[in-house]
Write a structure and sequence with these properties.
heterodimer; A: alpha/beta; Rossmann fold; 2 domains; 4-stranded parallel β-sheet; B: TIM Barrel; 8-stranded parallel beta barrel
Chain lengths: 215, 279
Amino acid sequence: MIIAKQKDMTEIAKMVAPYSRIYVVGCGMCMTYCSAGGPEEVEKLAERLMAGREDLILEKGMIPRQCSEKFIERLEEKTRDFEAILSLGCGNGVQAVAMRFPDKRVLPALDTQFIGIEKESGLWTEMCMACGDCILWRTAGICPVTRCAKGLLNGPCGGSQEGRCEVSNDIPCAWQEIYYGLKRLGILDYLKTEVQIKSWSVRPGRLAREELKPQ
Amino acid sequence: MVTAEIGPGKGTDVGALLEDASILKDRVDGINVTDMQSSVMRLGSMAVCHLLRDMEIDAILQVTCRDRNRLALQSDLLSAWVLGIRNVLALTGDHPTLGDHPQAKPVFDLDSVSLLEVIGKLGAGVDVAGNELKGATGFLAGAVVNPGADTEAALDLQIVKMEKKIKAGAQFFQTQAIYDLDQFEKFMKRVEGYRTKILGGVILLKSAGMARFMNKNVAGVFVPEHLIKEMTETKDKVKTSIEIAARLVKGLKDLCHGVHIMAIGWEKRVPQVLDEAGL
Protein backbone atom coordinates (compact mmCIF):
# COMPACT_ATOMS: atom_id res chain seq x y z
CA MET A 1 0.00 0.00 0.00
CA ILE A 2 0.94 3.66 -0.19
CA ILE A 3 2.35 5.05 3.05
CA ALA A 4 2.01 8.66 4.15
CA LYS A 5 2.28 10.77 7.27
CA GLN A 6 0.54 13.92 8.30
CA LYS A 7 2.29 17.23 7.65
CA ASP A 8 3.11 19.27 10.72
CA MET A 9 0.33 21.55 11.92
CA THR A 10 2.26 24.75 11.15
CA GLU A 11 2.33 23.94 7.45
CA ILE A 12 -1.31 22.83 7.38
CA ALA A 13 -2.41 25.98 9.24
CA LYS A 14 -0.44 28.11 6.75
CA MET A 15 -2.07 26.34 3.78
CA VAL A 16 -5.61 26.78 5.03
CA ALA A 17 -5.10 30.28 6.47
CA PRO A 18 -6.64 32.15 3.49
CA TYR A 19 -9.84 30.08 3.62
CA SER A 20 -12.68 30.06 6.12
CA ARG A 21 -14.89 27.34 4.61
CA ILE A 22 -12.98 24.10 4.49
CA TYR A 23 -14.06 20.54 3.75
CA VAL A 24 -11.76 17.93 5.30
CA VAL A 25 -11.85 14.55 3.58
CA GLY A 26 -10.15 11.26 4.39
CA CYS A 27 -9.52 8.20 2.25
CA GLY A 28 -10.75 4.70 3.08
CA MET A 29 -7.94 2.83 1.35
CA CYS A 30 -4.20 2.95 2.05
CA MET A 31 -4.44 6.17 4.08
CA THR A 32 -6.81 4.52 6.54
CA TYR A 33 -4.63 1.41 6.79
CA CYS A 34 -1.45 3.42 7.43
CA SER A 35 -3.27 5.53 10.02
CA ALA A 36 -2.61 8.79 8.20
CA GLY A 37 -5.94 9.68 6.63
CA GLY A 38 -8.71 7.48 8.05
CA PRO A 39 -11.83 8.55 10.01
CA GLU A 40 -9.89 8.97 13.28
CA GLU A 41 -7.22 11.17 11.70
CA VAL A 42 -9.86 13.28 9.94
CA GLU A 43 -11.64 13.77 13.25
CA LYS A 44 -8.46 14.77 15.10
CA LEU A 45 -7.23 17.11 12.39
CA ALA A 46 -10.64 18.84 12.17
CA GLU A 47 -10.63 19.35 15.94
CA ARG A 48 -7.15 20.89 15.92
CA LEU A 49 -8.00 23.22 13.06
CA MET A 50 -11.19 24.35 14.78
CA ALA A 51 -9.32 24.93 18.03
CA GLY A 52 -7.03 27.43 16.35
CA ARG A 53 -9.62 29.40 14.38
CA GLU A 54 -12.94 30.80 15.49
CA ASP A 55 -13.93 31.95 12.00
CA LEU A 56 -13.67 28.49 10.51
CA ILE A 57 -16.66 26.72 8.99
CA LEU A 58 -15.54 23.17 8.68
CA GLU A 59 -17.13 19.92 7.64
CA LYS A 60 -15.57 16.54 7.37
CA GLY A 61 -16.15 13.30 5.56
CA MET A 62 -14.68 10.11 4.15
CA ILE A 63 -14.77 8.50 0.73
CA PRO A 64 -13.69 4.90 0.09
CA ARG A 65 -10.92 5.91 -2.33
CA GLN A 66 -9.69 9.33 -3.36
CA CYS A 67 -7.99 7.96 -6.47
CA SER A 68 -11.23 6.81 -8.03
CA GLU A 69 -13.49 9.12 -9.97
CA LYS A 70 -16.68 7.36 -9.01
CA PHE A 71 -16.04 7.99 -5.30
CA ILE A 72 -14.74 11.53 -5.82
CA GLU A 73 -18.10 12.23 -7.48
CA ARG A 74 -19.70 11.90 -4.05
CA LEU A 75 -17.89 15.07 -2.97
CA GLU A 76 -19.67 17.21 -5.57
CA GLU A 77 -22.72 17.81 -3.42
CA LYS A 78 -20.91 17.84 -0.08
CA THR A 79 -18.25 20.37 -0.99
CA ARG A 80 -20.52 22.78 -2.90
CA ASP A 81 -20.38 25.51 -0.25
CA PHE A 82 -16.69 25.17 0.53
CA GLU A 83 -13.77 27.08 -0.98
CA ALA A 84 -11.10 24.59 -0.04
CA ILE A 85 -10.84 20.83 0.29
CA LEU A 86 -8.21 19.62 2.70
CA SER A 87 -7.40 16.10 1.54
CA LEU A 88 -6.03 13.33 3.73
CA GLY A 89 -5.36 11.31 0.62
CA CYS A 90 -1.97 10.36 -0.80
CA GLY A 91 -0.47 12.55 -3.52
CA ASN A 92 -2.40 10.49 -6.03
CA GLY A 93 -5.69 11.15 -4.23
CA VAL A 94 -5.07 14.88 -3.81
CA GLN A 95 -4.38 15.23 -7.55
CA ALA A 96 -7.40 13.18 -8.57
CA VAL A 97 -9.62 15.35 -6.38
CA ALA A 98 -7.97 18.54 -7.69
CA MET A 99 -8.55 17.38 -11.26
CA ARG A 100 -12.26 16.90 -10.53
CA PHE A 101 -12.66 20.30 -8.81
CA PRO A 102 -10.46 22.69 -10.80
CA ASP A 103 -12.14 25.77 -9.29
CA LYS A 104 -11.52 24.85 -5.69
CA ARG A 105 -8.32 24.90 -3.70
CA VAL A 106 -7.44 21.26 -3.01
CA LEU A 107 -4.77 21.05 -0.32
CA PRO A 108 -2.60 18.14 0.85
CA ALA A 109 -2.68 17.39 4.58
CA LEU A 110 -0.23 14.51 4.18
CA ASP A 111 3.28 13.91 2.92
CA THR A 112 3.22 10.76 0.82
CA GLN A 113 6.25 8.62 1.61
CA PHE A 114 6.41 5.43 -0.44
CA ILE A 115 4.90 2.11 -1.48
CA GLY A 116 5.57 -0.17 1.43
CA ILE A 117 4.35 -2.36 4.24
CA GLU A 118 3.72 -2.01 7.95
CA LYS A 119 6.67 -3.94 9.29
CA GLU A 120 5.55 -3.76 12.88
CA SER A 121 3.15 -1.56 14.75
CA GLY A 122 4.24 2.02 14.06
CA LEU A 123 6.97 1.13 11.56
CA TRP A 124 6.66 1.15 7.77
CA THR A 125 9.33 0.35 5.21
CA GLU A 126 9.59 0.96 1.47
CA MET A 127 9.37 -2.09 -0.77
CA CYS A 128 8.67 -1.04 -4.35
CA MET A 129 9.50 1.97 -6.55
CA ALA A 130 7.17 0.94 -9.36
CA CYS A 131 10.20 0.97 -11.68
CA GLY A 132 8.32 -0.87 -14.40
CA ASP A 133 10.60 -3.91 -14.74
CA CYS A 134 10.26 -6.42 -11.91
CA ILE A 135 13.29 -8.60 -11.14
CA LEU A 136 12.04 -10.10 -7.87
CA TRP A 137 12.18 -13.60 -9.35
CA ARG A 138 15.97 -13.31 -9.50
CA THR A 139 16.46 -11.73 -6.10
CA ALA A 140 14.58 -13.99 -3.71
CA GLY A 141 11.62 -11.62 -3.51
CA ILE A 142 13.75 -8.69 -2.25
CA CYS A 143 13.96 -5.59 -4.43
CA PRO A 144 17.49 -4.13 -4.71
CA VAL A 145 16.23 -1.26 -6.87
CA THR A 146 14.24 -0.04 -3.87
CA ARG A 147 15.81 -1.55 -0.78
CA CYS A 148 19.49 -0.98 -1.66
CA ALA A 149 20.20 2.71 -1.02
CA LYS A 150 22.15 2.82 -4.29
CA GLY A 151 19.71 0.63 -6.22
CA LEU A 152 22.56 -1.65 -7.24
CA LEU A 153 21.76 -4.50 -9.63
CA ASN A 154 25.03 -6.43 -9.69
CA GLY A 155 25.68 -7.13 -6.02
CA PRO A 156 26.43 -5.07 -2.93
CA CYS A 157 28.83 -2.16 -2.62
CA GLY A 158 31.58 -2.55 -0.06
CA GLY A 159 29.96 -0.22 2.41
CA SER A 160 27.86 -2.47 4.62
CA GLN A 161 28.91 -3.18 8.20
CA GLU A 162 27.56 -6.20 10.04
CA GLY A 163 24.85 -6.50 7.44
CA ARG A 164 23.67 -2.90 7.80
CA CYS A 165 23.67 -0.28 5.04
CA GLU A 166 26.35 2.45 4.96
CA VAL A 167 23.57 5.01 4.85
CA SER A 168 21.91 3.99 8.12
CA ASN A 169 22.15 1.33 10.77
CA ASP A 170 18.37 1.01 10.57
CA ILE A 171 18.52 -0.27 7.00
CA PRO A 172 19.58 -3.86 6.40
CA CYS A 173 21.89 -4.42 3.40
CA ALA A 174 19.43 -5.58 0.73
CA TRP A 175 22.11 -7.63 -0.99
CA GLN A 176 22.90 -9.57 2.16
CA GLU A 177 19.18 -10.27 2.55
CA ILE A 178 19.08 -11.41 -1.08
CA TYR A 179 22.10 -13.61 -0.43
CA TYR A 180 20.44 -15.31 2.54
CA GLY A 181 17.18 -15.69 0.61
CA LEU A 182 18.81 -17.26 -2.44
CA LYS A 183 20.91 -19.51 -0.20
CA ARG A 184 17.82 -20.70 1.68
CA LEU A 185 16.14 -21.48 -1.64
CA GLY A 186 19.23 -23.26 -2.98
CA ILE A 187 19.56 -20.88 -5.93
CA LEU A 188 22.69 -18.85 -5.06
CA ASP A 189 23.65 -19.20 -8.73
CA TYR A 190 21.17 -16.44 -9.44
CA LEU A 191 23.81 -14.05 -8.10
CA LYS A 192 25.97 -14.86 -11.09
CA THR A 193 23.71 -13.53 -13.82
CA GLU A 194 25.20 -11.50 -16.66
CA VAL A 195 25.85 -7.83 -15.99
CA GLN A 196 22.61 -5.96 -15.43
CA ILE A 197 22.09 -2.42 -16.71
CA LYS A 198 18.68 -1.02 -15.99
CA SER A 199 16.49 0.43 -18.66
CA TRP A 200 14.66 3.27 -16.93
CA SER A 201 11.11 3.76 -18.06
CA VAL A 202 9.95 7.19 -19.10
CA ARG A 203 8.28 9.18 -16.33
CA PRO A 204 5.54 10.31 -15.95
CA GLY A 205 4.32 6.79 -16.51
CA ARG A 206 1.51 6.02 -18.90
CA LEU A 207 -0.05 2.60 -19.42
CA ALA A 208 -2.30 2.02 -22.38
CA ARG A 209 -4.09 -1.28 -22.98
CA GLU A 210 -5.92 -1.23 -26.27
CA GLU A 211 -8.13 -4.21 -25.43
CA LEU A 212 -9.66 -2.33 -22.52
CA LYS A 213 -10.38 0.87 -24.39
CA PRO A 214 -13.95 1.55 -25.50
CA GLN A 215 -14.40 0.29 -29.07
CA MET B 1 53.99 -3.22 -8.41
CA VAL B 2 53.42 -0.29 -6.08
CA THR B 3 50.64 2.25 -6.40
CA ALA B 4 49.76 5.17 -4.15
CA GLU B 5 46.91 7.56 -3.91
CA ILE B 6 46.31 11.28 -3.67
CA GLY B 7 43.03 13.00 -2.86
CA PRO B 8 42.26 16.38 -4.48
CA GLY B 9 41.21 19.04 -2.02
CA LYS B 10 38.32 21.40 -1.78
CA GLY B 11 39.21 24.29 -4.05
CA THR B 12 41.58 25.17 -6.83
CA ASP B 13 44.85 25.22 -4.90
CA VAL B 14 46.82 22.21 -6.16
CA GLY B 15 50.21 23.20 -4.74
CA ALA B 16 50.44 20.70 -1.89
CA LEU B 17 48.74 17.98 -3.91
CA LEU B 18 51.26 18.16 -6.74
CA GLU B 19 54.12 18.37 -4.26
CA ASP B 20 52.90 15.08 -2.75
CA ALA B 21 52.69 13.63 -6.25
CA SER B 22 56.25 14.67 -7.04
CA ILE B 23 57.49 13.01 -3.83
CA LEU B 24 55.75 9.78 -4.83
CA LYS B 25 56.71 9.98 -8.50
CA ASP B 26 59.95 8.00 -8.58
CA ARG B 27 58.90 5.49 -5.96
CA VAL B 28 55.60 4.15 -7.30
CA ASP B 29 54.33 2.73 -10.59
CA GLY B 30 51.12 4.70 -10.59
CA ILE B 31 49.10 7.16 -8.56
CA ASN B 32 45.34 6.94 -8.04
CA VAL B 33 43.43 10.19 -7.95
CA THR B 34 40.23 9.87 -5.96
CA ASP B 35 36.82 10.96 -7.26
CA MET B 36 35.35 13.19 -4.55
CA GLN B 37 36.38 10.79 -1.82
CA SER B 38 33.87 10.32 1.03
CA SER B 39 31.25 12.07 -1.14
CA VAL B 40 32.76 15.45 -0.31
CA MET B 41 32.63 17.98 -3.17
CA ARG B 42 36.19 18.62 -4.35
CA LEU B 43 38.42 19.26 -7.32
CA GLY B 44 37.88 16.56 -9.93
CA SER B 45 39.95 13.48 -10.55
CA MET B 46 40.24 13.95 -14.32
CA ALA B 47 41.88 17.37 -14.14
CA VAL B 48 44.38 16.20 -11.54
CA CYS B 49 45.19 13.05 -13.53
CA HIS B 50 45.91 15.30 -16.48
CA LEU B 51 48.27 17.41 -14.35
CA LEU B 52 50.01 14.22 -13.21
CA ARG B 53 50.45 13.18 -16.82
CA ASP B 54 52.19 16.50 -17.49
CA MET B 55 54.57 15.50 -14.67
CA GLU B 56 55.10 12.15 -16.44
CA ILE B 57 53.33 10.21 -13.74
CA ASP B 58 51.16 7.24 -14.67
CA ALA B 59 47.83 8.36 -13.24
CA ILE B 60 44.92 6.10 -12.33
CA LEU B 61 41.59 7.88 -12.76
CA GLN B 62 39.11 6.84 -10.09
CA VAL B 63 35.58 6.97 -11.45
CA THR B 64 32.52 6.47 -9.26
CA CYS B 65 28.90 6.01 -10.32
CA ARG B 66 27.60 8.31 -7.57
CA ASP B 67 27.27 11.55 -9.54
CA ARG B 68 27.08 10.73 -13.22
CA ASN B 69 24.67 8.77 -15.35
CA ARG B 70 25.76 6.58 -18.25
CA LEU B 71 25.98 9.52 -20.65
CA ALA B 72 28.23 11.56 -18.38
CA LEU B 73 30.39 8.58 -17.41
CA GLN B 74 31.03 7.58 -21.01
CA SER B 75 31.67 11.15 -22.08
CA ASP B 76 34.12 11.63 -19.20
CA LEU B 77 35.92 8.43 -20.15
CA LEU B 78 36.32 9.62 -23.73
CA SER B 79 37.55 12.98 -22.43
CA ALA B 80 40.03 11.31 -20.09
CA TRP B 81 41.42 9.23 -22.95
CA VAL B 82 41.85 12.31 -25.11
CA LEU B 83 43.68 14.00 -22.24
CA GLY B 84 46.15 11.13 -22.16
CA ILE B 85 44.83 9.27 -19.14
CA ARG B 86 45.33 5.54 -19.61
CA ASN B 87 44.21 3.82 -16.38
CA VAL B 88 40.78 3.77 -14.78
CA LEU B 89 39.61 2.40 -11.46
CA ALA B 90 35.86 1.71 -11.53
CA LEU B 91 34.00 2.15 -8.27
CA THR B 92 30.37 2.31 -7.21
CA GLY B 93 31.11 5.21 -4.85
CA ASP B 94 29.93 6.19 -1.39
CA HIS B 95 26.38 7.38 -0.91
CA PRO B 96 26.03 11.19 -0.98
CA THR B 97 24.48 11.18 2.51
CA LEU B 98 27.96 10.38 3.89
CA GLY B 99 29.47 13.58 2.52
CA ASP B 100 29.10 17.35 2.73
CA HIS B 101 26.14 17.64 0.34
CA PRO B 102 23.83 15.05 1.88
CA GLN B 103 20.76 16.43 0.08
CA ALA B 104 22.23 15.65 -3.35
CA LYS B 105 20.37 13.25 -5.60
CA PRO B 106 22.29 9.98 -5.77
CA VAL B 107 22.73 8.75 -9.37
CA PHE B 108 24.03 5.16 -9.47
CA ASP B 109 22.67 4.69 -12.99
CA LEU B 110 25.51 2.19 -13.44
CA ASP B 111 27.53 0.41 -10.78
CA SER B 112 31.14 -0.73 -10.56
CA VAL B 113 30.41 -3.90 -12.55
CA SER B 114 28.41 -2.33 -15.36
CA LEU B 115 30.90 0.56 -15.50
CA LEU B 116 33.68 -1.96 -16.17
CA GLU B 117 31.61 -3.43 -18.95
CA VAL B 118 31.09 0.03 -20.40
CA ILE B 119 34.85 0.72 -20.27
CA GLY B 120 35.35 -2.49 -22.23
CA LYS B 121 32.81 -1.40 -24.83
CA LEU B 122 34.41 2.01 -25.30
CA GLY B 123 37.67 0.13 -25.81
CA ALA B 124 36.00 -1.95 -28.51
CA GLY B 125 34.77 1.18 -30.23
CA VAL B 126 31.10 1.18 -29.25
CA ASP B 127 29.09 2.93 -26.57
CA VAL B 128 26.72 1.22 -24.15
CA ALA B 129 23.78 1.86 -26.48
CA GLY B 130 25.62 0.05 -29.27
CA ASN B 131 26.54 3.11 -31.32
CA GLU B 132 29.88 3.13 -33.06
CA LEU B 133 32.62 5.51 -31.90
CA LYS B 134 34.96 7.42 -34.13
CA GLY B 135 38.06 6.57 -32.19
CA ALA B 136 38.05 4.08 -29.34
CA THR B 137 39.67 4.21 -25.90
CA GLY B 138 42.11 1.63 -24.62
CA PHE B 139 42.08 1.88 -20.86
CA LEU B 140 43.69 -0.46 -18.40
CA ALA B 141 40.69 -1.02 -16.15
CA GLY B 142 40.79 -1.88 -12.49
CA ALA B 143 38.40 -2.38 -9.62
CA VAL B 144 38.35 -2.78 -5.86
CA VAL B 145 37.61 -5.67 -3.55
CA ASN B 146 37.20 -5.81 0.18
CA PRO B 147 38.91 -8.95 1.53
CA GLY B 148 38.00 -8.05 5.11
CA ALA B 149 34.22 -8.04 4.61
CA ASP B 150 32.91 -8.64 8.10
CA THR B 151 30.28 -11.35 7.65
CA GLU B 152 30.42 -14.65 5.77
CA ALA B 153 27.64 -13.39 3.50
CA ALA B 154 29.46 -10.13 2.83
CA LEU B 155 32.71 -11.92 1.97
CA ASP B 156 30.96 -14.46 -0.29
CA LEU B 157 29.24 -11.56 -2.02
CA GLN B 158 32.56 -9.70 -2.41
CA ILE B 159 34.03 -12.73 -4.13
CA VAL B 160 31.01 -13.26 -6.40
CA LYS B 161 31.20 -9.60 -7.32
CA MET B 162 34.95 -9.83 -7.89
CA GLU B 163 34.33 -12.68 -10.36
CA LYS B 164 31.75 -10.52 -12.11
CA LYS B 165 34.18 -7.61 -12.26
CA ILE B 166 36.87 -9.82 -13.82
CA LYS B 167 34.37 -11.06 -16.38
CA ALA B 168 33.36 -7.47 -17.07
CA GLY B 169 36.98 -6.51 -17.75
CA ALA B 170 38.81 -5.72 -14.50
CA GLN B 171 42.50 -6.34 -15.16
CA PHE B 172 43.68 -5.39 -11.69
CA PHE B 173 42.29 -5.00 -8.18
CA GLN B 174 43.26 -2.71 -5.36
CA THR B 175 41.98 -3.91 -2.01
CA GLN B 176 40.62 -2.17 1.04
CA ALA B 177 43.27 -1.69 3.75
CA ILE B 178 44.61 -4.92 5.20
CA TYR B 179 46.01 -5.26 8.73
CA ASP B 180 45.58 -8.99 9.24
CA LEU B 181 47.92 -10.87 6.91
CA ASP B 182 46.62 -14.32 7.92
CA GLN B 183 43.09 -13.35 7.00
CA PHE B 184 44.32 -11.89 3.70
CA GLU B 185 46.22 -15.08 2.96
CA LYS B 186 42.96 -17.03 3.35
CA PHE B 187 41.25 -14.60 0.99
CA MET B 188 44.03 -15.02 -1.57
CA LYS B 189 43.58 -18.82 -1.37
CA ARG B 190 39.88 -18.38 -2.20
CA VAL B 191 40.64 -16.31 -5.27
CA GLU B 192 43.59 -18.42 -6.42
CA GLY B 193 43.62 -18.85 -10.17
CA TYR B 194 41.60 -15.72 -10.89
CA ARG B 195 43.06 -14.11 -13.99
CA THR B 196 43.82 -10.72 -12.55
CA LYS B 197 46.41 -8.81 -10.54
CA ILE B 198 45.78 -7.96 -6.91
CA LEU B 199 47.41 -5.06 -5.06
CA GLY B 200 46.98 -5.30 -1.29
CA GLY B 201 45.82 -2.09 0.36
CA VAL B 202 47.83 -0.34 3.08
CA ILE B 203 46.61 2.65 5.06
CA LEU B 204 49.19 4.38 7.26
CA LEU B 205 47.98 4.39 10.85
CA LYS B 206 48.47 7.88 12.24
CA SER B 207 47.35 7.11 15.77
CA ALA B 208 45.53 4.60 17.94
CA GLY B 209 42.49 6.84 17.73
CA MET B 210 42.47 6.63 13.96
CA ALA B 211 42.66 2.85 14.16
CA ARG B 212 39.69 2.69 16.53
CA PHE B 213 37.76 5.12 14.35
CA MET B 214 38.32 2.97 11.28
CA ASN B 215 37.32 -0.19 13.15
CA LYS B 216 34.07 1.43 14.08
CA ASN B 217 33.27 3.38 10.92
CA VAL B 218 35.06 2.03 7.86
CA ALA B 219 33.51 -1.03 6.29
CA GLY B 220 35.87 -3.97 6.01
CA VAL B 221 38.77 -2.38 7.87
CA PHE B 222 39.85 -4.13 11.03
CA VAL B 223 42.97 -3.07 12.89
CA PRO B 224 43.91 -5.80 15.38
CA GLU B 225 44.34 -4.88 19.06
CA HIS B 226 48.12 -5.56 19.06
CA LEU B 227 48.68 -2.84 16.42
CA ILE B 228 46.50 -0.39 18.35
CA LYS B 229 48.59 -1.19 21.42
CA GLU B 230 51.80 -0.54 19.50
CA MET B 231 50.48 2.86 18.43
CA THR B 232 49.32 3.68 21.98
CA GLU B 233 52.59 2.77 23.66
CA THR B 234 55.01 4.31 21.20
CA LYS B 235 56.90 7.53 21.93
CA ASP B 236 57.31 8.24 18.22
CA LYS B 237 54.00 7.76 16.42
CA VAL B 238 55.42 8.54 12.97
CA LYS B 239 58.25 6.05 13.35
CA THR B 240 55.93 3.30 14.60
CA SER B 241 53.38 4.05 11.89
CA ILE B 242 56.06 3.69 9.22
CA GLU B 243 57.33 0.46 10.81
CA ILE B 244 53.86 -1.06 10.85
CA ALA B 245 53.15 -0.03 7.27
CA ALA B 246 56.53 -1.40 6.13
CA ARG B 247 55.81 -4.75 7.84
CA LEU B 248 52.46 -4.92 6.06
CA VAL B 249 54.02 -4.02 2.71
CA LYS B 250 56.65 -6.73 3.15
CA GLY B 251 54.05 -9.31 4.07
CA LEU B 252 51.63 -8.35 1.32
CA LYS B 253 54.11 -8.33 -1.53
CA ASP B 254 54.69 -12.05 -1.08
CA LEU B 255 50.98 -12.85 -0.89
CA CYS B 256 49.78 -10.95 -3.96
CA HIS B 257 51.05 -8.92 -6.91
CA GLY B 258 51.86 -5.67 -5.18
CA VAL B 259 50.66 -3.01 -2.79
CA HIS B 260 48.47 0.05 -2.96
CA ILE B 261 49.42 2.62 -0.32
CA MET B 262 46.81 5.07 0.91
CA ALA B 263 48.71 7.60 3.01
CA ILE B 264 45.73 9.95 3.58
CA GLY B 265 47.76 13.10 4.13
CA TRP B 266 51.02 11.37 4.98
CA GLU B 267 52.18 10.98 1.36
CA LYS B 268 55.60 12.36 2.35
CA ARG B 269 56.15 9.29 4.56
CA VAL B 270 55.54 6.80 1.75
CA PRO B 271 59.19 6.77 0.54
CA GLN B 272 60.29 5.90 4.11
CA VAL B 273 57.77 3.06 4.23
CA LEU B 274 59.09 1.71 0.93
CA ASP B 275 62.72 2.12 2.09
CA GLU B 276 62.03 0.19 5.24
CA ALA B 277 60.17 -2.50 3.29
CA GLY B 278 63.16 -2.81 0.96
CA LEU B 279 61.29 -1.66 -2.17
